[in-house]
Amino acid sequence: MRMVSRVALLSILVMLAMFYYAGATEHARVVNTARARADQSGYLWDAVAIYRARHGGPDTLIGERNRMPVYPWLVSWLYEPAMTPDEFFARVKAWNIRLSFALLATLALIAARALPPLIAANFVLVLAFGYFMYKAGYAQVELLFYFLLFLTVLACARQLRGDDTRRTLALAAFGGTLAALSHLSKAALLPLVGLFLLVCAARALAPLLRRGTIDRRPAFRLAAIRSAGALVFLASFLAVLSPYLINSKKHFGHYFYNVNSTFYIWY
Protein backbone atom coordinates (compact mmCIF):
# COMPACT_ATOMS: atom_id res chain seq x y z
CA MET A 1 0.00 0.00 0.00
CA ARG A 2 2.85 2.35 0.84
CA MET A 3 4.47 1.68 -2.55
CA VAL A 4 1.19 2.43 -4.34
CA SER A 5 0.90 5.73 -2.44
CA ARG A 6 4.44 6.70 -3.38
CA VAL A 7 3.86 5.88 -7.05
CA ALA A 8 0.62 7.89 -7.04
CA LEU A 9 2.34 10.84 -5.37
CA LEU A 10 5.23 10.72 -7.84
CA SER A 11 2.76 10.59 -10.75
CA ILE A 12 0.93 13.66 -9.44
CA LEU A 13 4.21 15.54 -9.00
CA VAL A 14 5.32 14.69 -12.53
CA MET A 15 1.99 15.85 -13.98
CA LEU A 16 2.09 19.09 -11.99
CA ALA A 17 5.69 19.72 -13.12
CA MET A 18 4.71 19.13 -16.76
CA PHE A 19 1.74 21.47 -16.43
CA TYR A 20 3.93 24.11 -14.78
CA TYR A 21 6.59 23.86 -17.49
CA ALA A 22 4.00 24.03 -20.27
CA GLY A 23 2.27 27.03 -18.70
CA ALA A 24 5.50 28.93 -18.06
CA THR A 25 6.83 28.20 -21.54
CA GLU A 26 3.58 29.25 -23.22
CA HIS A 27 3.44 32.45 -21.19
CA ALA A 28 7.03 33.24 -22.20
CA ARG A 29 6.25 32.54 -25.86
CA VAL A 30 2.87 34.28 -26.18
CA VAL A 31 2.86 37.04 -23.54
CA ASN A 32 6.50 37.97 -22.92
CA THR A 33 7.54 38.79 -26.46
CA ALA A 34 9.30 42.15 -25.95
CA ARG A 35 12.73 42.57 -24.38
CA ALA A 36 11.82 46.10 -23.27
CA ARG A 37 8.97 44.79 -21.13
CA ALA A 38 9.57 45.02 -17.36
CA ASP A 39 13.19 46.18 -17.70
CA GLN A 40 14.37 42.88 -19.21
CA SER A 41 16.47 44.64 -21.85
CA GLY A 42 18.44 46.30 -19.06
CA TYR A 43 19.35 42.97 -17.47
CA LEU A 44 20.32 41.55 -20.87
CA TRP A 45 22.46 44.59 -21.62
CA ASP A 46 24.20 44.25 -18.24
CA ALA A 47 24.85 40.55 -18.90
CA VAL A 48 26.50 41.31 -22.24
CA ALA A 49 28.62 44.04 -20.59
CA ILE A 50 29.77 41.59 -17.91
CA TYR A 51 30.62 38.99 -20.57
CA ARG A 52 32.70 41.53 -22.50
CA ALA A 53 34.48 42.74 -19.36
CA ARG A 54 35.31 39.12 -18.48
CA HIS A 55 36.88 38.70 -21.93
CA GLY A 56 39.03 41.82 -21.86
CA GLY A 57 36.47 44.49 -22.71
CA PRO A 58 35.83 47.75 -20.82
CA ASP A 59 34.73 47.61 -17.19
CA THR A 60 31.18 48.98 -17.24
CA LEU A 61 29.14 50.34 -14.32
CA ILE A 62 26.72 47.43 -14.22
CA GLY A 63 23.12 48.44 -13.64
CA GLU A 64 24.04 52.12 -13.47
CA ARG A 65 23.26 51.82 -9.72
CA ASN A 66 19.67 50.86 -10.51
CA ARG A 67 19.79 47.16 -11.38
CA MET A 68 22.06 45.05 -9.20
CA PRO A 69 24.79 42.71 -10.51
CA VAL A 70 23.97 39.16 -9.29
CA TYR A 71 21.37 38.24 -11.90
CA PRO A 72 23.23 39.76 -14.90
CA TRP A 73 26.39 37.95 -13.77
CA LEU A 74 24.55 34.61 -13.78
CA VAL A 75 22.94 35.33 -17.14
CA SER A 76 26.25 36.44 -18.67
CA TRP A 77 27.40 32.80 -18.74
CA LEU A 78 24.59 32.06 -21.21
CA TYR A 79 25.71 34.68 -23.72
CA GLU A 80 27.63 33.94 -26.92
CA PRO A 81 28.86 36.70 -29.26
CA ALA A 82 27.28 35.02 -32.28
CA MET A 83 23.80 35.35 -30.76
CA THR A 84 21.28 37.92 -31.92
CA PRO A 85 19.50 39.87 -29.15
CA ASP A 86 16.35 37.82 -29.71
CA GLU A 87 18.25 34.53 -29.47
CA PHE A 88 19.88 35.63 -26.23
CA PHE A 89 16.48 36.73 -24.91
CA ALA A 90 14.95 33.34 -25.73
CA ARG A 91 17.84 31.47 -24.07
CA VAL A 92 17.58 33.51 -20.89
CA LYS A 93 13.81 32.98 -20.69
CA ALA A 94 14.25 29.21 -21.04
CA TRP A 95 17.03 29.22 -18.43
CA ASN A 96 14.92 31.24 -16.01
CA ILE A 97 12.15 28.64 -16.24
CA ARG A 98 14.64 25.94 -15.29
CA LEU A 99 15.93 28.13 -12.46
CA SER A 100 12.37 28.51 -11.17
CA PHE A 101 12.11 24.71 -10.90
CA ALA A 102 15.22 24.62 -8.71
CA LEU A 103 13.94 27.46 -6.52
CA LEU A 104 10.54 25.79 -6.10
CA ALA A 105 12.14 22.44 -5.27
CA THR A 106 14.24 24.06 -2.54
CA LEU A 107 11.21 25.88 -1.13
CA ALA A 108 9.27 22.61 -1.18
CA LEU A 109 11.99 20.87 0.86
CA ILE A 110 12.00 23.71 3.39
CA ALA A 111 8.20 23.66 3.64
CA ALA A 112 8.14 19.87 4.03
CA ARG A 113 10.53 20.09 7.00
CA ALA A 114 8.85 23.04 8.70
CA LEU A 115 5.12 22.65 8.04
CA PRO A 116 2.43 19.95 8.23
CA PRO A 117 2.06 18.08 4.90
CA LEU A 118 -1.20 19.68 3.76
CA ILE A 119 -0.08 23.22 4.60
CA ALA A 120 3.30 22.62 2.95
CA ALA A 121 1.60 21.33 -0.21
CA ASN A 122 -0.75 24.33 -0.32
CA PHE A 123 2.17 26.70 0.21
CA VAL A 124 4.15 25.27 -2.70
CA LEU A 125 1.14 25.01 -5.04
CA VAL A 126 0.12 28.62 -4.41
CA LEU A 127 3.69 29.77 -5.08
CA ALA A 128 4.04 27.66 -8.21
CA PHE A 129 0.71 28.32 -9.90
CA GLY A 130 -0.19 31.64 -8.33
CA TYR A 131 3.02 33.50 -9.12
CA PHE A 132 6.09 31.56 -10.24
CA MET A 133 4.54 30.16 -13.42
CA TYR A 134 3.70 33.69 -14.62
CA LYS A 135 7.15 35.13 -13.85
CA ALA A 136 9.41 32.20 -14.74
CA GLY A 137 9.65 33.01 -18.45
CA TYR A 138 11.12 36.49 -17.93
CA ALA A 139 14.69 37.74 -18.03
CA GLN A 140 14.23 39.27 -14.59
CA VAL A 141 15.67 38.86 -11.12
CA GLU A 142 12.36 38.77 -9.24
CA LEU A 143 12.09 35.03 -8.56
CA LEU A 144 15.71 34.76 -7.45
CA PHE A 145 15.36 37.85 -5.27
CA TYR A 146 12.19 36.65 -3.53
CA PHE A 147 13.82 33.27 -2.95
CA LEU A 148 16.93 34.82 -1.37
CA LEU A 149 14.80 37.24 0.65
CA PHE A 150 12.69 34.35 1.98
CA LEU A 151 15.82 32.47 3.08
CA THR A 152 17.20 35.66 4.66
CA VAL A 153 14.06 36.19 6.74
CA LEU A 154 14.08 32.53 7.82
CA ALA A 155 17.73 32.73 8.89
CA CYS A 156 17.08 35.95 10.83
CA ALA A 157 14.02 34.44 12.53
CA ARG A 158 15.98 31.33 13.53
CA GLN A 159 18.76 33.50 14.93
CA LEU A 160 16.28 35.43 17.07
CA ARG A 161 14.76 32.21 18.43
CA GLY A 162 17.97 30.66 19.76
CA ASP A 163 20.72 31.60 22.19
CA ASP A 164 23.24 28.79 21.72
CA THR A 165 26.60 30.42 20.96
CA ARG A 166 27.73 28.28 18.05
CA ARG A 167 24.28 28.12 16.45
CA THR A 168 23.71 31.87 16.85
CA LEU A 169 27.02 32.78 15.24
CA ALA A 170 26.56 30.29 12.40
CA LEU A 171 23.06 31.59 11.67
CA ALA A 172 24.31 35.17 11.90
CA ALA A 173 27.04 34.53 9.32
CA PHE A 174 24.59 32.68 7.06
CA GLY A 175 21.89 35.34 7.43
CA GLY A 176 24.29 38.21 6.78
CA THR A 177 25.61 36.51 3.66
CA LEU A 178 22.08 35.85 2.39
CA ALA A 179 21.07 39.44 3.12
CA ALA A 180 24.03 40.71 1.10
CA LEU A 181 23.26 38.39 -1.83
CA SER A 182 19.63 39.52 -1.70
CA HIS A 183 20.74 43.16 -1.74
CA LEU A 184 23.07 42.46 -4.68
CA SER A 185 20.06 41.01 -6.48
CA LYS A 186 17.75 43.93 -5.74
CA ALA A 187 18.70 46.96 -3.64
CA ALA A 188 15.91 46.58 -1.09
CA LEU A 189 17.49 45.00 2.01
CA LEU A 190 18.79 47.99 3.96
CA PRO A 191 15.48 48.61 5.84
CA LEU A 192 15.28 44.92 6.79
CA VAL A 193 18.91 44.84 7.93
CA GLY A 194 18.42 47.99 10.00
CA LEU A 195 15.25 46.65 11.62
CA PHE A 196 16.86 43.29 12.35
CA LEU A 197 19.86 44.93 14.03
CA LEU A 198 17.53 47.08 16.16
CA VAL A 199 15.69 43.95 17.30
CA CYS A 200 19.01 42.25 18.05
CA ALA A 201 20.10 45.25 20.13
CA ALA A 202 16.83 45.19 22.09
CA ARG A 203 17.21 41.44 22.74
CA ALA A 204 20.81 41.97 23.89
CA LEU A 205 19.75 44.65 26.38
CA ALA A 206 16.71 42.76 27.67
CA PRO A 207 18.59 40.34 30.02
CA LEU A 208 20.54 43.24 31.55
CA LEU A 209 17.35 45.15 32.38
CA ARG A 210 15.70 42.33 34.28
CA ARG A 211 15.59 42.63 38.05
CA GLY A 212 15.32 40.15 40.87
CA THR A 213 18.48 38.08 40.37
CA ILE A 214 21.69 38.35 42.37
CA ASP A 215 23.97 36.46 39.99
CA ARG A 216 24.23 38.63 36.87
CA ARG A 217 26.68 36.40 35.00
CA PRO A 218 24.04 34.48 32.99
CA ALA A 219 22.48 37.77 31.93
CA PHE A 220 25.82 39.17 30.77
CA ARG A 221 26.59 35.93 28.93
CA LEU A 222 23.23 35.99 27.14
CA ALA A 223 23.68 39.65 26.22
CA ALA A 224 27.17 38.88 24.89
CA ILE A 225 25.93 36.01 22.72
CA ARG A 226 23.16 38.11 21.23
CA SER A 227 25.48 41.08 20.66
CA ALA A 228 28.04 38.84 19.00
CA GLY A 229 25.34 37.46 16.72
CA ALA A 230 24.36 40.96 15.61
CA LEU A 231 27.98 41.91 14.96
CA VAL A 232 28.68 38.75 12.97
CA PHE A 233 25.53 39.34 10.91
CA LEU A 234 26.58 42.91 10.14
CA ALA A 235 30.18 41.92 9.41
CA SER A 236 29.08 39.17 7.00
CA PHE A 237 26.65 41.52 5.28
CA LEU A 238 29.29 44.21 4.76
CA ALA A 239 32.04 41.76 3.79
CA VAL A 240 30.03 40.29 0.92
CA LEU A 241 28.88 43.75 -0.17
CA SER A 242 32.29 45.40 0.18
CA PRO A 243 33.49 45.15 -3.48
CA TYR A 244 30.24 46.73 -4.69
CA LEU A 245 30.30 49.40 -1.95
CA ILE A 246 33.92 50.32 -2.68
CA ASN A 247 33.10 50.63 -6.38
CA SER A 248 30.12 52.88 -5.57
CA LYS A 249 32.30 55.08 -3.36
CA LYS A 250 34.90 55.34 -6.12
CA HIS A 251 32.46 56.43 -8.82
CA PHE A 252 29.72 58.25 -6.91
CA GLY A 253 31.26 59.33 -3.62
CA HIS A 254 28.88 57.28 -1.45
CA TYR A 255 29.07 53.67 -0.35
CA PHE A 256 25.31 53.12 -0.53
CA TYR A 257 24.59 55.28 -3.57
CA ASN A 258 21.41 54.40 -5.48
CA VAL A 259 20.17 56.34 -8.48
CA ASN A 260 16.50 55.88 -7.58
CA SER A 261 16.60 57.11 -4.00
CA THR A 262 18.91 59.94 -5.09
CA PHE A 263 16.64 61.43 -7.76
CA TYR A 264 13.13 60.04 -7.28
CA ILE A 265 11.32 60.76 -4.03
CA TRP A 266 8.76 57.97 -4.42
CA TYR A 267 11.48 55.35 -4.10
How would you portray this structure in words?
This protein has 10 helices and no strands. The protein is an all-alpha fold. It is flat. The model has no long low-confidence stretch (mean pLDDT 91).
Structural class: mainly alpha
Give the distance, in angstroms, between the N- and C-terminal Cα atoms: 57 Å
Q: Residue-averaged pLDDT, rounded?
A: 91
- Tell me the β content: under 5%
Main sheet attributes: strand count, strand direction, barrel closure: none
DSSP helix fraction? over 70%
- Strand/helix succession: HHHHHHHHHH
Rounded to an integer, what's the Rg over CA atoms?
A: 22 Å
Number of alpha- plus pi-helical segments: 10
**What's the count of strands?**
0
Uncertain regions: pLDDT < 50 for 5+ in a row? Answer: none
Shape descriptor reads flat
Please summarize what this structure is.
With 267 residues, the chain is an all-alpha fold.
Question: Keywords for this structure?
Answer:
about 270 residues, mainly alpha
Give the secondary structure arrangement, pairings included.
Elements: H1 2-30, H2 40-54, H3 70-76, H4 85-114, H5 117-135, H6 142-161, H7 165-185, H8 190-209, H9 217-252, H10 259-263
Helix pairs in contact: 1-4, 1-5, 2-3, 4-5, 6-7, 7-9, 8-9
